[in-house]
Amino acid sequence: MGAGENVELVRRGYEAFNAGDMDTLRELFAEDAVWFAPGNGTLSGRKEGRERILAYFRELGTRSEGQLKVTLQDTSTARTTPSPCNTTRQKAAAGAWTWRA
Protein backbone atom coordinates (compact mmCIF):
# COMPACT_ATOMS: atom_id res chain seq x y z
CA MET A 1 0.00 0.00 0.00
CA GLY A 2 1.38 3.37 -0.99
CA ALA A 3 1.46 6.61 0.97
CA GLY A 4 -1.52 8.03 -0.93
CA GLU A 5 -3.62 4.98 -0.05
CA ASN A 6 -2.60 5.26 3.61
CA VAL A 7 -3.61 8.91 3.65
CA GLU A 8 -7.02 7.98 2.23
CA LEU A 9 -7.49 5.39 4.99
CA VAL A 10 -6.72 8.02 7.61
CA ARG A 11 -9.22 10.40 6.00
CA ARG A 12 -11.87 7.66 6.00
CA GLY A 13 -11.16 7.09 9.68
CA TYR A 14 -11.66 10.73 10.56
CA GLU A 15 -14.90 10.86 8.57
CA ALA A 16 -16.12 7.69 10.29
CA PHE A 17 -15.22 9.09 13.72
CA ASN A 18 -17.16 12.30 13.06
CA ALA A 19 -20.17 10.29 11.87
CA GLY A 20 -20.00 7.89 14.83
CA ASP A 21 -19.55 5.05 12.32
CA MET A 22 -18.00 2.37 14.52
CA ASP A 23 -18.42 -0.32 11.84
CA THR A 24 -16.09 1.53 9.46
CA LEU A 25 -13.64 2.26 12.28
CA ARG A 26 -13.69 -1.45 13.20
CA GLU A 27 -12.71 -2.26 9.59
CA LEU A 28 -9.87 0.27 9.62
CA PHE A 29 -8.20 -0.72 12.90
CA ALA A 30 -6.19 -3.91 13.27
CA GLU A 31 -7.33 -6.20 16.06
CA ASP A 32 -4.06 -5.57 17.93
CA ALA A 33 -3.93 -1.79 17.33
CA VAL A 34 -2.68 0.51 20.08
CA TRP A 35 -3.93 4.08 20.63
CA PHE A 36 -2.37 6.55 23.03
CA ALA A 37 -4.37 9.41 24.51
CA PRO A 38 -1.98 11.98 26.04
CA GLY A 39 -2.52 13.66 29.38
CA ASN A 40 -3.31 12.68 32.96
CA GLY A 41 -7.11 12.54 32.85
CA THR A 42 -9.37 9.57 33.35
CA LEU A 43 -9.44 8.88 29.60
CA SER A 44 -5.67 9.27 29.11
CA GLY A 45 -3.27 6.42 28.48
CA ARG A 46 -2.81 3.38 26.24
CA LYS A 47 -5.79 1.69 24.66
CA GLU A 48 -4.67 -1.77 23.56
CA GLY A 49 -6.77 -3.62 21.02
CA ARG A 50 -9.40 -2.53 18.53
CA GLU A 51 -12.36 -3.00 20.89
CA ARG A 52 -10.76 -0.90 23.67
CA ILE A 53 -9.98 1.84 21.16
CA LEU A 54 -13.56 1.83 19.90
CA ALA A 55 -14.85 1.87 23.49
CA TYR A 56 -12.66 4.94 24.09
CA PHE A 57 -14.10 6.64 21.00
CA ARG A 58 -17.65 5.83 22.14
CA GLU A 59 -16.86 7.31 25.55
CA LEU A 60 -15.59 10.50 23.90
CA GLY A 61 -18.87 10.71 22.00
CA THR A 62 -20.91 10.10 25.12
CA ARG A 63 -19.07 12.64 27.25
CA SER A 64 -19.29 15.28 24.55
CA GLU A 65 -22.96 14.46 23.92
CA GLY A 66 -22.09 13.83 20.29
CA GLN A 67 -20.51 17.26 19.86
CA LEU A 68 -16.86 16.16 19.53
CA LYS A 69 -15.67 16.47 15.94
CA VAL A 70 -12.13 16.13 14.65
CA THR A 71 -10.52 17.79 11.64
CA LEU A 72 -7.56 16.34 9.84
CA GLN A 73 -5.49 19.34 8.87
CA ASP A 74 -2.45 17.74 7.32
CA THR A 75 -0.97 14.40 6.38
CA SER A 76 2.63 13.91 5.48
CA THR A 77 3.12 11.67 2.50
CA ALA A 78 6.81 11.60 3.40
CA ARG A 79 5.98 8.90 5.95
CA THR A 80 4.99 5.44 4.87
CA THR A 81 2.17 5.29 7.40
CA PRO A 82 0.57 8.49 8.64
CA SER A 83 -0.23 8.03 12.30
CA PRO A 84 -3.03 9.97 13.94
CA CYS A 85 -1.84 8.33 17.18
CA ASN A 86 1.22 10.58 17.16
CA THR A 87 -0.63 13.87 17.17
CA THR A 88 -1.03 16.95 19.26
CA ARG A 89 -4.43 18.41 20.05
CA GLN A 90 -5.66 21.94 20.31
CA LYS A 91 -9.08 22.77 21.62
CA ALA A 92 -11.15 24.61 19.06
CA ALA A 93 -14.49 26.37 19.38
CA ALA A 94 -17.77 24.67 20.25
CA GLY A 95 -16.34 21.46 21.67
CA ALA A 96 -14.44 20.50 18.52
CA TRP A 97 -10.86 19.34 18.49
CA THR A 98 -8.30 19.82 15.77
CA TRP A 99 -5.78 17.04 15.24
CA ARG A 100 -2.47 17.62 13.53
CA ALA A 101 -0.78 14.54 12.12
Low-confidence stretches are 79-101
Shape: globular
SS strand fraction: 15-25%
Strand order of the largest sheet: 3-5-4
DSSP summary, beta strand count: 5
Mean of residue pLDDT values: 79
Give the arrangement of secondary structure elements.
Blueprint: H1 3-19, H2 22-28, E1 34-37, E2 45-48, H3 50-63, E3 70-72, E4 88-91, E5 97-100
Parallel strand pairs: 3-5
Antiparallel strand pairs: 1-2, 4-5
Helix pairs in contact: 1-2
In brief, what are we looking at here?
The protein is an alpha+beta fold and 101 residues long. It has three helices and five strands, in the order ααββαβββ.
Q: Could you characterize the architecture of this molecule?
A:
This protein has helices spanning 3-19, 22-28, 50-63; strands spanning 34-37, 45-48, 70-72, 88-91, 97-100. Mean pLDDT is 79; it is low at 79-101. It has a 3-stranded mixed beta sheet. The chain has 101 residues and is of the alpha+beta class. Helix content is 38%, strand content 19%. The protein has one domain: Nuclear Transport Factor 2, Chain: A (Roll), CATH 3.10.450. The protein contains 3 helices and 5 strands; from the N terminus they run H-H-E-E-H-E-E-E.
Core attributes:
101 residues; alpha+beta; Nuclear Transport Factor 2, Chain: A; three-stranded mixed β-sheet; two-stranded antiparallel sheet; 5 strands; 38% helix; 19% strand; globular; disordered C terminus
